[in-house]
Amino acid sequence: MDKPTNEILPPIARRTFVTTLVAGFTLAAGPVRADAIVTDANGLDAGAVDIPVADGIIPAYRARPAGKPGAPVVLVVQEVFGVHEHIKDLCRRLAHSGYYAIAPSLYARQGDPGKYDMAHIMDLLKDVVSKVPDSEVMSDLDGAVGFAKSEGADTMRLAVTGFCWGGRIVWLYAAHNHGLKAGVAWYGPLAGTDTDARPHTAIELAADIKAPVLGLYAGLDQNITATDIEAMKKALSNADNTRSRIDVFADAQHGFNADYRPSYNEKDAKEGWARMLDWFKANGVG
């Protein structure tokens, strides 16, 4: 019989994916508004970090109040365009409100969304976005939670928010992680066609959602229709999920919080942001 050993084996090497965070604003959304909001990092510890995930290391942007451990955590899920300057800015805004905010680069294995311009947005969808499995995204978000915990953040007070592509992910993560306290989904797709990478829609997973999720949607959205929203409300009701709700801003377009894009609606964006912060606090994340 082999003798027991106390030898410490070297850690398994982790693969570092070469994709980095997007520099500046995305090119794929078109010209950037001259008055796009840029939030300072005064009083914050903010910048790029590397987070361990199941099969390697991916980049993320993290902002937190400087010198104040134990902050509640908000996972910030990127738009379809990746973790670019607007998503980083949202992290800084949350950090100024007292949160540890982290946005992992969820396309890190598939490609760099920053190299695509508006003329090639369909290539971005085909070459990168369509190849990102939901299961991988769920695992990477779990990795971001683990990283936040390792930095002293309070992961018992955990929330998630996401925008566009990331808005859909909010609903899915609320079904995946039953330790989540709250979620806020900004104009995330609710319906669609199942694929191998995306085997379920948000509507199909409604019965698995345990955390209260606030949906912030746009009445003038050309893709996420009133029919989809009503179907999601019905699915939540059928699941007896009375703590979640969907608010529709009648005069807003898809992307109404994206202050760097023509779709920005200042009034509704500010109101939506206030509702998000109130939602977090009302559900124990604050």
Overall description:
The structure is a single chain. With about 290 residues, this protein is of the alpha/beta class. It has a single domain (about 15-280), classed as Rossmann fold. The protein contains 6 helices and 9 strands, in the order ββββαβααβαββαβα. Strands 1, 2, 3, 4, 5, 6, 7, 8 and 9 form a 9-stranded mixed beta sheet that branches. The protein is globular, with a radius of gyration of 19 Å. The termini are far apart. Mean pLDDT is about 95; it is low at about 1-10.
In brief:
Helices cover 27% and strands 21% of the residues. It is built from six helices and nine strands; from the N terminus they run ββββαβααβαββαβα.
CATH architecture assignment: 3-Layer(aba) Sandwich
Q: What is the residue-averaged pLDDT?
A: 93
Strand content: 15-25%
Number of helices: 6
**Anisotropy-based shape:** globular
Number of strands: 9
Give the CATH topology: Rossmann fold
Q: Could you give me the name of the CATH homologous superfamily?
A: Alpha/Beta hydrolase fold, catalytic domain
Cα distance spanning the termini: 55 Å
Give, in order, the helices and strands: EEEEHEHHEHEEHEH
Question: Spans of 5+ residues with little confidence (pLDDT < 50)?
Answer: 1-12
CATH class group: Alpha Beta
Helix/strand/pairing class, anyone?
alpha/beta
Largest sheet entry: 9 strands, mixed
Helix content: 25-40%
Provide tags for this entry:
286 residues; alpha/beta; Rossmann fold; 9-stranded mixed beta sheet; 9 strands
